[in-house]
Amino acid sequence: MTLNCAVLDDYQGVALTLADWSALVGKVEVRTLREHITDRDRLVAELAGCEIIVAMRERTPFDAGLLRRLPRLRLLVTTGMRNASIDLAAAAAQGVTVCGTASSSTPPVELTWALLLGLARHVTAENRALRGGGPWQSTVGQDLEGRTLGLLGLGKIGSRVARVATAFGMEVLAWSQNLTAERAADAGARLASGKEDLLRRSDFVSVHLVLSDRTRGLLGEPELRAMRPHAFLVNTSRAPIVDRSALLRALREGWIAGAGLDVFETEPLPADDPLRSLANVLATPHLGYVTERNYRTFYTQAVEDITAFLAGTPVRLLTGG
What we know:
- This protein is an alpha/beta fold and 321 residues long.
- It has eleven helices and twelve strands.
- The chain has helices at residues 40-47, 64-68, 88-93, 106-120, 123-131, 156-167, 181-186, 195-201, 221-226, 244-253, 292-310; strands at residues 3-7, 28-32, 52-55, 75-78, 97-99, 148-152, 171-175, 190-191, 204-207, 232-235, 258-261, 281-283.
- A seven-stranded parallel β-sheet has the order 8-7-6-9-10-11-12, with helices on both faces.
- The radius of gyration is 22 Å and the shape is globular.
- The model has no long low-confidence stretch (mean pLDDT 97).
């Protein structure tokens, strides 16, 4: 019997061309969904006939309620080896195998710097003026050399961001709840005495923390007010780490100079969301991990996961333990 597989959120229409799916011919019928589906009933209608689903990151929450409405589901593949949007215990109870793929930490590092540099040199405003026949030079950019970059989080991504900062001649401060001075020094950074200390001393602040109960809302009104008025905030990690209402006020009232954002609490971002129109926001549509090499890894290993599952020897298993 041929199984049915749906690949979710293939926005660019590349899932079937960036990997060789031929190993599944005659065994699995694969189709892709180009748009993100937020309506639960519509999503169930699209997926009800699938034994296999390939999910993109954490875009679609597979909670117990959704899993119960997908009784045919047997294999759920997620890109990356961590997905907080999947209820692994509920999946196991329902007999659904959950597998992951590798994911490079390099692309989000590169996008972090694209946003930071774009903000520092007002690239969006100057490009818009140049294309529209506006003034020839209207802004004065910020230097990076000699400025301070504050990193909230110094894991795989934060450490790479720190190394790039030192190449620009920047001072690097870092803080997280369990970070030690020794670990910070290993990445070329100095440990800030606390979150507030980092925010007060930094010209640029970049967020590289995992979303958890401890980090949700970590940056609220008091923290954003502690930042320098000329400082920029960059968030390529998870949107709820920064309180949305406080961030909007900070941007509108000039508590900070601006923000570079790649993550949002609602994705895709609604057409009327103020973050789309604020002049001091440089935003991208969650592109942190979206590169050709990463996508080749995602989909090639998704095929491997499906092939191994069909052979009765699943690989890269995600469990709730």
